[in-house]
Amino acid sequence: MNQEKQYKEPMSGKKLFVIIGAVMIGTVVAGLVLFTNFL
Question: What transmembrane ranges does the database entry give (predicted)?
Answer without folding.
Answer: 16-38
